[in-house]
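Quick one, tokens below. Sequence please?
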């Protein structure tokens, strides 16, 4: 949007520039955490992953056994 809206007296949006920063996703956060060396955060993420996979396996096991 490089063309501002002209009201006759004011150019609305003449200094607008879209956000050009990179979007931060989970992989970027994980990499930055590892590079910073935040051991507590790395352990917390690992425990959360193990709990998630365990819950998923238990759910699938229950679905197949009791179906």
């Amino acid at each position: 949007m490089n063309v501002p809206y002209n009201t006759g007296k004011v150019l609305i949006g003449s200094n607008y520039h879209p956000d050009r920063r990179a979007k931060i996703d989970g992989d970027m956060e994980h990499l930055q955490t590892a590079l910073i060396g935040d051991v507590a955060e790395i352990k917390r993420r690992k425990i959360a992953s193990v709990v998630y996979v365990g819950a998923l396996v238990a759910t699938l096991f229950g679905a197949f056994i009791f179906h």
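The longest helix spans residues 39-65. The chain has a mean pLDDT of 87.
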